[in-house]
Amino acid sequence: MALTCDVQFCGSVLAAANLTAKYFIGMDGNVCGASAKALGVSLYDCDSGEMASIVKCGEALVLSGGAVSVGDPVAADSAGKAVSVAALSATNALSGALTAGTLAIAAHTVSGAPAAGTLAVTVDAGVTPVTSSAANGAICTVAGAPTAGTLAVDAHALSGVPAVGTLAVASTFAGGRLPVITNGWALDAASGANETIRVRLA
User: Fold this and answer.
1) Residue 108 in contact with residue 151, Cβ under 8 Å?
2) Structural domains of the chain ordered from first start
3) pTM
4) Which residues in 28-167 belong to E strands, given as ranges?
């Protein structure tokens, strides 16, 4: 079944080249350039130098430039056909990475160990049988215990830490005009190029 559309307003423009119906037409009377704002859609074929009928408001039949889904915002491609407009995205640039370095830990140093000594145990002379310390008293003498000292471990020494750098994110915006101009919204789907779809003009 042939598609029909609701044309609400038509105007005219002097054709700067031979125009074919169902293409986006630019303000200058040529086929609309890629991502540019269209004056409207050519209603009929028109020779260069003649006044071309242009659909400016409502719905228009337009040839697709590729696959299009229902509801997609559409723009003109380089041939003046309708193509889907990609979602807006932004890219940030990173600069100033950190400088690599080497982290080193010095070996531990131990100092002040206790001094060595000699432990001697002697038994008192005599032939009295030993029954207990309570009965016979202390009969062993201990001498020459090791000398007390101090054990110390020095603090860790760090060297070669990574150098600190600056990480910058640059986002630059200028002007208020979008890089791609939406000329309407698709009312029909297209599986590829050169299919006729209805477009609700912006």
Assistant:
1) no
2) 7-86+180-201 (2.40.300)
3) 0.62
4) 38-42, 51-65, 73-76, 82-84, 93-95, 104-105, 110-111, 120-123, 140-143, 152-153, 158-159
